[in-house]
Design brief:
The chain has helices spanning about 35-45, 50-70, 75-115. With about 120 residues, the protein is mainly α.
Length: about 120
Amino acid sequence: MSNPYDPNANPYQAPNNPMPYGQPYQAVAPEHPQGTTILVLGIIGLFFTICAPIAWFMGSKALKEIKASGINYANEQQIVIGRVLGMVITIIALVALVFFIVFFIIIAITAVTQSGG
């Protein structure tokens, strides 16, 4: 074996042990059939809130399937991202809905009391 720090060594010389040909490649992990759908629903949930809980539900269901099967899917990260988007958007929408309801109840009470009723 040659010294890599030898000042007289030729840096452009081919290595002594070339890589052997015919080495098998690792098998490509399959994609979960609903992975892209869950991610797209999570993103669309930003604009159409009804899609967010669907992404949350489908993402949770897909992750349970993945844990039960033990298979590593290539797009598992897409499922997680779509599920988290669905969770966050759904929770924000529910909080906003509660605030709007409380706001309109306060307006209604204020209108009734000022009208003398």
